[in-house]
Amino acid sequence: MFLISAKIESFKSINTPQNVLIDDEVTVLVGMNEAGKTVFLKALEKSNDAQGLAKFNPVDDYPRKGYTEYRNQHEKNPAEATILTYQLTEDEVSDLNSELHSELPAEFTFSVTHLYNNTRRISISVDEQPVLKALLAESALSTDAKTALKKAQSFRSIPKCFEGIGLTDEDERFLDKINNRIAETTWDSVVQYEVWKWLEPNIPQFLYFSDYDILPSKINILDLESKVKQAETNPEKLTSQYRSALALLRKAGISINDITNSKGYETQDAILGSVSSNLTDQILEFWKQNEDIEVEVDINSDLTDDPPFNNGPNLYLRIKNLRHRGVRSPFDQRSRGFIWFFSFLVWFDSVQIQIGSKKDIILLLDEPGLALHALAQANFLDYIDDLAKKHQVIYTTHSPFMVHSHRLHQVRMVEDKAKLGTIISDNLSGSDPRTIFPLQAALGWTIAQNLFISPRNLLVEGASDLIYLKTISAFLENEGRIGLRENITIVPVGGLDNVVTFLALLSANDLKIAVLHDYKGSLEQKLEDIVKAKIINPKSVLNASQFRNLDQLGKEGQASDTEDLFEPEFYLDYFNRTFSKQLSDVAIKESELPKRDRIIQRIESYLKDKKIKLRPSGGFNHYAVASYFASNPPDSLDENTLKRFEELFKKVNAVV
After folding, report:
1. What is the tens place of the pLDDT at every residue in 558-614?
2. Which tens digit of pLDDT belongs to each residue from 312-361?
3. Domain limits, the chain
4. How far apart are CA 124 and CA 196, in angstroms?
5. 188 Cβ partners below 8 Å, 6+ apart?
6. CA-CA distance, 175 to 183, in Å (whole number)?
7. Concatenated DSSP letters for 327-365?
8. How far apart are the C-alpha atoms of 499 and 128, rounded to whole Å?
9. Architecture of domain 1-125+190-204+360-430 in CATH?
């Protein structure tokens, strides 16, 4: 079961209800500081906290500007905080239908509304008729009873249908079972209730982690024991630092009693040695910045330390650096990034032990890896992908190194807008340039990184070409067709004028290179010159027109851009959706466009004729359409479009 959407009604800085689509693997919230990224995570955590600690509190959570008015209604009419919609997996639907004899559809969804008084409302729709039919087919009822059962319109109406007929012993037992099931709920639909009781224990819970949950370097055992006892009556006494300490003990597989009532040095040393080795293996699986380290856990007393560490045994967490002859240092003296990463591993493993590793959870990570080096952040992305194999992950960031540039559909933009409060959207084109800067930087970093390490490169004019080619290549591969080979890097060079410079730089490195450029109706002089200079093989210089006409593949025809490999109506539809706000939701039709060779040229001519300004310099931002396309890919593409791109990829694969 996984979360597919989260609607936040009114919560802290979210004044306007925000309905956010959640990716079934990883969702990334990108935005400036104080935009409201943490607010969104906190709303989810308080909806269904796996640790049972976070709860909605109107004083702390309800938007302040409306709190005075709301508090008068809270007791009798608590406001909705979140509405969470879940979807079942194919196996879950099959199991549920098999157990309850229902016929839920393959992508069955239901919603849970969480209120500010920490109660909830369930929205679920289940047809009872299949269950009634199953009862009729499986039961050994008398003829009269079966006739009566056929008249039942709902599960709850079955007993009434049995009134006034003679019942056999088998009929009586059947009716007793029906009455018992009806008595279990006040819901109108008994079957809906039974489906809900099946779903309820399987609903994913949320786990939130931030800098406040990092591990301490040393823990006084008696002080920890005291706080645990106080927390039995006052949970707030167990602060995040103490909870992290308990997490380390759980991870170590030891309890407070094991330390205070030690069974001898050798036993304790064996346990701690095993724990130290296990922690080292886990951290090194994903920590690649320094692999010459070992984690050490030790227990000792120190009467000279400051309170409370001068009273009884302390648990010490240290890191040994093998690069420097095994020098040991306290955990809190390591880099901030290492401390965060290690703390998360311990915390997450501990929580899984508490709630059970088989329980579905959704991880909420607030600015993960913020203190990590850029390359370490890339390693942490691999770790997030590994986590996403079992759990949905939602994390916040404003680092370009914490965003996969080829997965823009997973990104949600978070902005704080005047009067509206926090706004969360997947529309990149309509976002503040400062908000989308990490995405632009991520794309730039990917380009720059690949530029120097890839032995095979396809040079294109702009970033929009990169997006279209990457997206369609993945689309084709998903259908078992030919896409661009994975070892070919697409490099946008910022226009045809830069192609010569890039070719000169790259050819010196003995790299294999192809060029895909827009075609204006005749071969560009600069391209002719580099071919004559034997900087590039003429077969490696390709243009969009060679793949536009399926009857004349490989031959240059009318002026064409990459966008012309799509059907005109298809591209125009994405243009209309990208700029719907600026166009006042009035869609431009292809029949309204002037006759030109290129779809971009046709649209720009139309805008000019109608005096529609989408940007001060005229025309429109081609990249905005490409970004929207990548964030909102179509469910399917027409065969001609797929064929054009497939032939293009075949050619590029061959020449590179």
Report:
1. 999 999 999 999 999 999 999 999 998 899 999 999 999 999 999 999 999 999 989
2. 888 888 888 777 666 777 877 777 777 877 888 777 777 777 666 567 89
3. 1-125+190-204+360-430, 129-188, 210-355, 454-655
4. 8
5. 154, 156
6. 12
7. EEEEGGGS-HHHHHHHHHHHHHHHHHHHH-TTS-EEEEE
8. 65
9. 3-Layer(aba) Sandwich (3.40)
